[in-house]
Amino acid sequence: RKAGYAIVGLGKLSVEEILPAFGSARRSRAAALISGHPDKARQLAQVYGVAPGSLYGYDDYRRLRDDKDVDIVYIVLPNSMHADHTIRALEAGKHVLCEKPMATTPAECERMIAAAKAANRKLMIAYRIHFEPHNLRAVEAAKGMGGIRSFASTNAQTTTAPNIRLSKALGGGPVGDTGVYSFNTARMFLNEEPVEVTAREWRPAGDPRFREVPASVSYTLRYPSGVVAHCDTSFNAAESRFYRVTCADGVVHMDSAFSYHGQQLRLTAKDGTQIPRIRAIDQFAAEMDHFSDVVLDGGTVRTPGEMGLADQRIIAAIGEAARTGRPVRL
Ligand code: NAD
């Protein structure tokens, strides 16, 4: 059978990516919608075949508990609401897939993990890059290149107002929103956690978008192996989403690394290895299907709450390093 999902929050990501992705999902289906906008929920329910009785408000988690059609709640709300909704969904006996970044503080992440343990339910963070075939192939390619020496990455875009990403109260800011892709992906290559962070941020004077959050943040992460990741992220630049993994015997280049489509993987390897064309997939369908497999059949979540917590600690450390101008130990 397919796992039933209740989608919470019907904003841009839900409407443009997640709901359409059920069309190509193997083991996942839209079973319910949870929204503060009943009209919008009714309209979308018609399009995606969700029954009128399966529409809920944000305060309806008690009623959701009895909805046997819902196995998983997918949290697609502003970051500041992730912890509260995740915990309420877990307490209602549902498994939870929560959008990145996991929350707004490490303490919130710890509460979410504890709630999943107490409820004996699974908690996954929606890090879709772990299910994207070019990125998975890139990690394999680097393994054959004699050891990683450095990781460089940019994840930048132009963010226009109004936007939840520009609000401090809603948990916005470029590091948690876009920057997190760089260090979450670095972990896939390095399999280790950074021990020290440095950071500098840029708030252009007179731009009202950046009263509450920085426009750009540049940062370095130092790992126990000695590798340093140098990264930057921006809400005030042309779209640029790449990484470059420099190894002893070659370099892995990935453009559009964190985009929904269009990954461009290229190697410059001493032995001339190249990578044959890789078929593109719907990352959201693949990510949901992984969680459905684990929920329905058992197994281990590839991107669990603990990974979200590790990233949240890095987000906090980058914030502190940028504020103080000093390196922060992790
Ligand atoms: P959005 O602003 O388009 O949607 C937010 C939703 O939350 C809306 O439905 C809105 O009505 C609802 N909401 C409830 N209370 C709100 C409040 N107080 N203020 C504002 N909105 C409120 O945002 P989005 O782009 O859909 O992002 C939602 C989440 O998804 C975020 O956590 C974001 O980081 C994540 N996201 C992930 C990806 C990805 O590729 N994995 C891409 C985009 C967004």
Explained architecture:
- This protein is of the alpha/beta class.
- It has 2 domains: 3-128 and 284-299, Rossmann fold; 133-280 and 312-329, Dihydrodipicolinate Reductase, domain 2, CATH 3.30.360.10.
- It is 34% helix and 26% strand.
- It contains 9 helices and 14 strands.
- It has helices spanning 12-21, 38-48, 61-65, 82-91, 106-119, 133-143, 174-190, 283-297, 305-324; strands at 3-8, 28-34, 55-56, 72-75, 95-99, 123-126, 148-158, 196-202, 216-222, 228-234, 236-247, 250-255, 264-269, 328-329.
- Strands 13-12-11-7-10-9-8-14 form an 8-stranded mixed β-sheet. It has a 6-stranded parallel β-sheet with strand order 3-2-1-4-5-6.
- Strand 5, helix 5 (106-119) and strand 6 form a beta-alpha-beta unit.
- Helix 4 (82-91) runs parallel beside helix 5 and helix 7 (174-190) crosses helix 9.
- It is globular.
- The termini are far apart.
- The model has no long low-confidence stretch (mean pLDDT 98).
- The protein binds nicotinamide-adenine-dinucleotide (NAD).
Brief sketch in words of this structure:
The chain is an alpha/beta fold and 330 residues long. It is built from 9 helices and 14 strands. It has helices spanning 12-21, 38-48, 61-65, 82-91, 106-119, 133-143, 174-190, 283-297, 305-324, and strands at residues 3-8, 28-34, 55-56, 72-75, 95-99, 123-126, 148-158, 196-202, 216-222, 228-234, 236-247, 250-255, 264-269, 328-329.
Mean pLDDT: 98
What would you say the CATH architecture of the largest domain is? 2-Layer Sandwich
* Number of alpha- plus pi-helical segments: 9
- Which structural class is indicated by helix and strand composition? alpha/beta
Secondary structure: number of strands: 14
Could you state the CATH homologous superfamily of the largest domain?
Dihydrodipicolinate Reductase, domain 2
**How would you sum up the global shape?**
globular
